[in-house]
Design brief:
The chain is an alpha/beta fold. The chain contains 7 helices and 5 strands; from the N terminus they run βααβααβααβαβ.
Length: 161
Amino acid sequence: MAGPSQKTIRIYADTSVFGGVFDEEFEGASKAFFYGVRKARFSLVTSELVRQEIQAGPKNVQDFFYEILTIAEVAEITAESLSLQQAYTDAGIIPKRYSTDALHVALATTSRASLIVSWNFKHIVNFLKIPLYNAVNTLHGYPEVAIYSPLEVIEYEDEDV
């Protein structure tokens, strides 16, 4: 995803990507992703939901989140995003007990992010669920949203980061 047009891409990062910076398995790609954010290769969108979830996490994740927040847009939880979240759960994409995962997708969609990055392979980055989210988006007049892991959006020449 190299090139000058990349700077205009709005990417929503959920809580797992922030925590991934401090997780041995996800550290490399998560750090490379945020390196790209710092270099303004794309526009970072996160949300009030991520902020709430981060508050329950370790202090190092909280500190990192608040550092990155200075260069991110924060999507607020609105009636519009809650309605779309409900549409996802009503469609059976995600069980109601995991509805916060549906809210991440709804927040990314209603804030007009072009794509979502997440390490949540069960409910978000899932090849069976992505077309279902986009079908609901289409039914409700929203554009499709691409969903990837950070591994799929980083520039590999930045691996040394």
